[in-house]
Amino acid sequence: MKTLGSGSLVSVLKVVLDIVWYLAWGLLAFAALVLIATGTLLAMDWLGYSPNFLTDLFQAIRDFGGAYPILIAHIIAFLVVNDRLRRIFSTLVAGDPFVPENAGHLRMIAIAIAVFQVLRYLTQGAVAMVMTLLHADAPVVGGVEINKLGSFDLGAWFAVLALLVLAEVFREGARMRQEQKLTI
Q1: Residue at 1 is within a domain
Q2: What one-character DSSP code corresponds to residue 63?
Q3: C-alpha angle with apex 101: 96 to 106, nearest 5 degrees?
Q4: What are the C-alpha distances in Å from 166 to residues 83, 97, 122, 135?
Q5: pLDDT above 70 (res 138)
Q6: What residues contact 71, with CB distance under 8 A and at least 6 apart?
Q7: Within a 10 A sphere around the Cβ of 95, how many other Cβ atoms?
C-alpha cells in the first residue's frame, strides 16, 4: 500500500482524524453541559435549595464535576492538534507534503501542546483551590485524584521542542522546493 496520495495509508488516517474530530466536538459539548450543571448545582447549594428529585444524578455531577474543567482543556487542545493534523494530512493525500503551510501547522501543534500544558497546571490548581474552599475531597478520575495529576510532563515538553524543529525542517524543505521550481 502506498503511503502518499489518494487511496493511501494517509487517506485512511485522514478519514480516522475526521471521525475523531466530530466525536471530540460531541464530547466537548457533553463536558460543557456537565460543567454548566455543576455550576448550577453549586449555586443551588449556596442558595440553600436542594431538589429531592434526581438526587443520584445530582450527586454524581457534584462528585465528578470538578474534573470537567480539566477535561475541557484536554478536549480543546486535542481539537486544535487534530485540526492541524487534518490540514497536514490533506496536503499528504494531495501528494504535496512540502508546502509552506505545513510548517505553520506543525508550529501551531507545538504551541497548542505547550499552552495546554500550562493550562493544565493552572486548571488543576484552580480545581484544587475550589475543592479546598468547599471542604470537598478532590475528584477521582480513573482511580487517581485530580491533584495528583499535576506532575511535570517531560515527554510533552520534548514533543513541543521536536515539533518546533520539524516545523523548521518543513519550512526549509518548502523553501528548497520552491527554489528548485524556479531554477527549472
Answers
A1: no
A2: H
A3: 100
A4: 18, 13, 28, 46
A5: no
A6: 31
A7: 12
The residue segments making up the domain with residue 149 are 9-183
Q: Are 30 and 71 in contact (CB under 8 A)?
A: no
Mutual angle of helices 100-133 and 68-93, in 10-degree steps? 170
Q: Is residue 34 one of the residues assigned to a domain?
A: yes
At 74, list the grid cell: 484536554
Asked if 122 contacts 150 with a C-beta cutoff of 8 angstroms, the reply is no
Query: Tens digit of pLDDT for each residue in 57-94?
Result: 666 666 666 667 777 778 888 899 999 999 998 888 88
pTM of the model: 0.67
- Residue 95, domain member (yes or no): yes
Distance CA 170, CA 165 (A): 9
Q: For 6-99, where are the alpha helices, taking DSSP H only?
A: 9-47, 55-64, 68-93
CA 57 to chain centre: 27
User: How far is the C-alpha of 21 from the C-alpha of 14, rounded, in Å?
Assistant: 10
Where on the phi/psi map is residue 144: left (φ > 0), alpha (ψ -120 to 50), or beta?
A: beta
- Amino acid of residue 123: T
